[in-house]
Each structure stands twice: as C-alpha cells, then as structure tokens.
Design brief:
elongated, two-stranded antiparallel ribbon, Beta-Lactamase, about 260 residues, Arc Repressor Mutant, subunit A, 2 domains
C-alpha cells in the first residue's frame, strides 16, 4: 500500500515539468516502473480528478482537482503573510493571545498564532484542531457558509464538551444568525470551562469568508465588559487582513450564506 502511494506521488511530481501532456510509456521510463502498473495508477488518479487524459494526444495532464489544491495552498500562504503583522498589532492592542483559524470539515485548525505575554494564558499550539460548534472561530466560519453547508453541519450530532456547549441544532442555528448580523462571535465556557474567546471574519478578494481571527483568554480576565470593549478592534483586525488579501469593502460582499 505504501509503495503504491509513494509511486502515485512520484508520478504526480513528474508533471512539475509543465509539459502539455505525458504518455504512459514515458512515465513508465522516468519512474522505472512497468507500463501496466503505471496505467493502473493513472486510471485511479484520473478517477479522482487529479489527472485527466488528453483526447488529442492520449497523454495525461494535471486535472482540475490539482488546480484546486494549488489554489488552496496559495490561499494559506497568502493568509499567513497577510495575517502576521495584524496579529502582532492585535496582541499588542488587547494584550491577549491572537490566532487565525480555518474550517476543515467539522473542525477549526489554527494556522497562525501569537501567545499573550500574561503569566496566566491559554496554550494552543499552531496546527491544533478543535470542534467548530463550540469555538468563536468555528461559529464565524459556520455562520458564513452557504445555507446547505450549514444545514448539513447542523444535521450532525454535536458533542457536548461542557454544560455550556450548544448542541441543539435550533439553538446553534439562532446563534449563527446572530453572528452573521453582529459581525463577530463569542464562546464562553463552551469548549473548556474557564476559557472565553471572540472571533471575526477574514474575507478573500471575492468577499468570501475564508478564515477567522480570534482572541482568547481565561474567563477570569476576559469577562463580558472586556469582550465588548475588544470586539470592535477584533472586527477591524479581520477587515485589515481581508484588505491585505485583496478584499475591497467598497465593491460589496458576495453572500454565500443567504
């Protein structure tokens, strides 16, 4: 199994040459594999959309899924570059840990993070995954999904992590409606007792919400009053990153969550 995956990866890397298309025999020669084995790999990769067959030459070229994957990588690289200075400014302004998260299925993945200088702070490493329904970042990202995507999420069983986790679909649906209208989300004691967070959307050049910027802290320091005080700064930070990604608020926002 591992050798098959390795050979599939080696095969895909051959298309970095940017040739219009490459035939089975040439791929077999370059990889040092039999033609029948290469043909099986090609058939599987075509079925998955990673490659496609050129009807004119009979050769193979990269498929639309590879383009989509490349665009996803580009977005994350652009996001990291755009978010860095804003995260630093937000941490300095609020004194709290700041992070950027993206939605991956039913989880939020933190792709960038700066830790608070407070001795009492949260420790959440970059790359950590958390359930979307009980975090402020997850609420922002879910709130701005299309309605079919949002309803599909709400149809899933939602795990209760604390007594304060919202697990009833109607209650979470109402919460997401509030988030869309208000422009930011909060979560208090929902994923972990004693933890509070705020999040705001980050938009791409098209106006689609592709990430969330958030700040989090122990509830003892991050009660209702400081949360309300920091919310405008957080929204401004999200808009600043969005502008660095090419979003122009004057041109309007394409809505996917109607």
């Amino acid at each position: 199994m591992l050798s098959t995956v390795s050979n599939a990866a080696r095969l895909l890397k051959e298309f970095r040459s940017r040739e219009a298309s490459i035939g089975v025999s040439e791929l077999a020669r370059r990889l040092g594999l039999g033609k029948s084995g290469v043909h099986r790999l090609l058939t599987t990769l075509v079925a998955e959309g990673l490659l496609e067959r050129d009807p004119q030459t009979g050769g193979y070229r990269l498929g639309i899924v590879m383009f989509e994957l490349g665009e996803a990588v580009k977005v994350h690289l652009d996001l990291h570059a755009a978010a860095g200075p804003v995260l630093a400014q937000l941490r300095e302004q609020t004194g709290e840990s700041s992070q950027v998260g993206v939605l991956d299925g039913v989880e939020v993945v933190y792709v960038d993070r700066l830790e608070s200088a407070h001795s009492l702070r949260l420790f959440t490493e970059t790359g950590r995954r958390v359930p979307a329904h009980c975090t402020s970042s997850g609420k922002v990202l879910l709130a701005h999904q299309s309605e079919p995507e949002r309803e599909a999420f709400l149809a899933r069983p939602l795990p209760r992590l604390t007594p304060h986790t919202i697990v009833e679909p109607d209650a979470l649906r109402d919460e997401l409606t509030t988030v869309r209208a208000r422009g930011w989300a909060e979560a208090v004691d929902e994923r972990e007792i004693g933890v509070a967070s705020l999040a705001a959307p980050i938009r791409d050049v098209h106006g689609d919400v592709v990430a969330a910027i958030s700040i989090g802290a122990p509830v003892a320091r991050f009660g209702a009053v400081p949360r309300r005080r920091h919310a405008p700064a957080l929204v401004e930070a999200g808009e600043a990153i969005s502008r660095r990604l090419g979003w122009n608020p004057e041109s309007g926002v394409r809505s996917r969550d109607a």
